[in-house]
Amino acid sequence: MNGNFLESVVVRVLADNQVMFGTPYVGQHGVSILVTACRQGSELNVLVDTGGDGDAVLRNMGLMGVNPRVVDVIVLTHRHKDHTGGLFKVLEAVGRENLPIIAHPDIMKPNISLEPHVRYIGVPADFGKRVAGLGGTLILTRDPLELMPGLTTTGEVKRFRPMRRHEFKTLTEDFRMVDDEMMDDTSLIALLRDGLVLITGCSHSGITNIVRHSVELTKVGKVKAIVGGLHLVKAPEDEIAEIVEELTQHEIEAIFAGHCTGFKAQAELSKRYGDKFTPLQAGMKLIFK
Ligand SMILES: [Fe+2]
Ligand SMILES: [Fe+2]
């Protein structure tokens, strides 16, 4: 990707568990972020995740003055329904034929949470069929996919550090219930002249792994911003401290973390990063150049 920079990236937060103070946006448990990448007069609108509630995503999109028909590509960061559940409603509103929907092949794997009781939280069994019926074309790959020069998915994230805890189960081909490594967890990387902007879903592959993987992939060491969920909501304090410490080893200009980051991790990030940390909220519009 070296040499292929974007001139600007506009990030609009369409879904998050929190909303901006004094605004009409609606919150939900989920993530949806519209990324508008600009380079040499051309623009690509990439919708990263679709929340769990598509109506809420579309309402916020309307309040932000964005027509859903501008969406060129959808990237699904992983299979959890708070990121994929809004897809069908969004596809109807986008109304485009052969709309590319990029995800890791494991997005089709079952995913089960046993807390606080057994729940299926992956995509429905007829997912592929419904997507195709609404004009979407699934592009399932483990590899990083360049959407335009300067904008790429991470592909499968290298696990420099193994997952500390397993919160979800999956099924093997012979129907064994095993820990789910969430290998589908993918992020989006925007490359600007002086650094990267990382858009994450839940960071199930570990935020420090995502940062290291993105730096290796792009050969750019500086991170201008991390925007998304960091999935530390159930992490014990020592794990949060360790991860935040590891993050500070990297050159990171700003962190906008919400959704599944959790209050304790947000408090720790706020303590360590000061004004460089902002809780993610629906309705935010961030411009990076
Ligand atoms: Fe999530
Ligand atoms: Fe998730």
Number of structural domains: 1
Q: What is the CATH superfamily classification?
A: Ribonuclease Z/Hydroxyacylglutathione hydrolase-like
For the termini, the CA-CA separation is: 17 Å
- The proportion of strand residues reads 25-35%
* Heterogens: fe (ii) ion
Q: From the helix content, strand content and strand pairing, which structural class follows?
A: alpha/beta
The CATH topology name reads Metallo-beta-lactamase, Chain A
C-alpha Rg (nearest Å)? 18 Å
CATH first level: which class? Answer: Alpha Beta
Order of helices and strands: EEEHEHHEEEHEEEEEEEHEHEEHEE
- Helical content band: 10-25%
What is the mean predicted local confidence, pLDDT? Answer: 97
Beta strands, count: 19
Tell me the overall shape: globular
Uncertain regions: pLDDT < 50 for 5+ in a row? none
Largest sheet: 8 strands, mixed
Query: How many separate helices?
Result: 7
CATH architecture heading: 4-Layer Sandwich
Write up what this structure looks like:
With 289 residues, the protein is an alpha/beta fold. It has a single domain (8-288), classed as Metallo-beta-lactamase, Chain A (4-Layer Sandwich). Helix content is 22%, strand content 29%. It has seven helices and 19 strands. The protein has helices spanning 54-63, 81-84, 87-94, 127-133, 207-218, 237-247, 263-273, and strands spanning 8-15, 32-39, 42-48, 73-75, 99-103, 112-113, 119-120, 136-140, 146-148, 151-153, 168-171, 177-179, 188-192, 195-199, 222-229, 251-252, 255-258, 277-279, 285-288. The strands form three sheets. Strands 9, 10, 13, 14, 15, 16, 17 and 18 form an eight-stranded mixed sheet that branches. A seven-stranded mixed sheet has the order 8-5-4-3-2-1-19. Helix 6 (237-247) packs parallel to helix 7 (263-273). The longest helix has 12 residues, at 207-218. The protein starts with 7 loop residues before the first strand and ends with a strand. Residues 31, 80, 82-83, 202, 229, 259-260 line the site of one fe (ii) ion.
